[in-house]
Input
Amino acid sequence: MKTLIGLLLLSLIAFAPDFARAADKKIMLIAGKPSHGSGEHEHRAGVLLFQKCLADFPGIAVEVFTNGWPADSAALQGAAAIVIYSDGGGAHPALQENHLAELGALAKQGVGFACIHYAIEPTIEKGQSEFLDWIGGCFEINRSVNPTWEADFKTLPDHPIARGVKPFKLKDEWYFNMRFRDGMTGVTPILSAVPDADTMYRADGPHEGNPGVRAAVAHGDLQTVMWASERADGGRGFGFTGGHYHHNWGNENFRKLALNGILWIAKVEVPTNGVQSTVTAADLEQNLDPKGRKAKVKPAAMPAPAAK
Output
């Protein structure tokens, strides 16, 4: 009898990790296909870095899908949160086939949703209304712009995504003049800064400039480049316009905002000091797409044009 009890106890111990994993909240990270030069739009390396940073965080299981949408959308079932880091516009993975409808069904179940960098741009005709619902805002052509500039984030809000984050400055392709829900209903700015006049060095174009944004920059309007949103049904989302340059994930504040945001949309409690993670120079060289050339960043006064 004692032997039987002992065997049962050993069995329970052996399978306990599986029980724990089954109870974990599933976070799905979708990386888009290779894009731009080496060190830019490193979607795969970026999400794998997020997975590494969250590997030891209790209560979650992070799964990564690379090179676009999962081969079988059923893989997203049971997700607590879905994050897309990819190119946008007509090539956005969420806009292909019936993926918007699939995401919509998951959103109705309360699944969190987030988009990073170019992935925050759907098209006006397809995806914009859904993105406004799911993440509260998005890039809109002929309104929003995508210059490279050094943003000075002087203050952070009292919000779980900002826990442990200190004011910082960082050069990236920070998109701004976004389209938000009317009245910013349910939307909380997380990162905001005032763009300098050099952000308007390009001629007007679908991503480069327009009279409205030029007037806003000349006026010194504060621009929101990361935000959190809450839906009436309780679902959560965020948009993060940075992430063009992969090496920026080495900045603790920059990285912590994304990691905190991922937990928050999955309705996982964000620690008081935010997600603690360490990223080395070697980590940043891992999993880069074989693109053949290194990214070159010009001074803020003359940023390199971005082809979108």
